[in-house]
Amino acid sequence: MKRRVAIVGFGQTEMSAHSPLTKAELANQGVRRALDDARITLKQVDEIVLGDIDWVSGTAESEMELADFVGHWRKPLVKIETGGTVGGSAALSAIHHVAAGACDVALVSTTAKFVGPPPDVMPRGPFLQAAISSGVHALTEKWCAIGAVGTLSLMAAAYAKLSGCTEEAVALTRVKAARNAMLNPYAHLREPLTVEDVMKSPMLTAPMRHLHMCPITEGSASIIFASEDVVDQITDKPVWVQDMVSLHSAQHWSALQDFIAPKEHCTLPSLQKACEILYKRNGITNPAKQLDVVEMYEPCTWAELVWMEAMGLAEPNQAWKMAASGATAIDGVLPINPSGGVTSTNGGVTSTTQRYGELALQLRGDAGAHQVPREPRRGIATGFGGTGWTPLLLLSKDKP
């Protein structure tokens, strides 16, 4: 990167299953809160990067619908649409533009507002699954429903067999997420859970239970990035982008054999490789000790355990023991998802934006009730989406 880039503002709306606000209203609220956080006006924003998934929100060319509400009318606009990774893809795009000198201040806006048939015709879950299935390979994948629940259940079953992970250990990790979410006023699911609650929840596809999976969430989140040339004019608490990596695992779900049917240990290939690249470039040899906090895109509780190992935070097949010890709690040696994570709030479009923004709040010391008690200085945030895509961001309180 030619110029150093920092996060100077973050805003999000209250997340819920069915927001009373329209998509445009949610987007406007998220943008306004980010601007207020950065203490700037829209006039000081040079470029807008819009992250969206049109088929989810039932619109085409949503940049036209949102122009007056996000503020990109007569401003440079880039629209990114990469499925579940879209918030991360949009953020990395904005960082590149600022670093390259195309603009000094870029605002990223992501909003989730789902549409579909009335619930008595088709529930939202099957509607979204049908939409996902429409994009899979015509010859190798049309015969089955390939989506989050089915694919992640295969991973969970393999991990349980290979590692000896118990249902109690997975339940403890889900309880941890619920406990953190209760401290976050923006989280979607904010009810207390016990291990018994999790273990008694309905089975989806063994060993995946209902409470292991993330919800379907509506809301909006925005991040503002600024170049080192103007940061001092905006904030005295910048969070610096130290490095970033974006990688795919495969073109099609059925090609992810290491992910779906591992022989020795479960992993997410793109996340593992992205971390290897990022760690090497930044002198990180022991990430569990050299990182202070992690915001991970975990679409289910099992994924949090598997991806801890993919990130080198735990030895293969040992993450569940580390999590069960309390090491990943807010007051643990390596807090993971102090915000409550994606298993508590899953806007899809907004999910990676929230991971990046929540990590920035932690490094600023502005996370409120879910603030990590010891002062974090460096952390990592991940994204996740179709074909095992990983947009990875390393943030630091210290200027690189």
Automatic annotation (TrEMBL):
GO molecular function terms attached to this record: acetyl-CoA C-acyltransferase activity
Pfam families assigned to the protein according to its UniProt record, in alphabetical order: Thiolase_C_1 (PF22691)
Residue ranges annotated for the Thiolase C-terminal domain, each copy included: 264-389
InterPro entries membership: Thiolase, Thiolase-like, Thiolase_C_2
Protein name as it appears in the record: Acetyl-CoA acetyltransferase
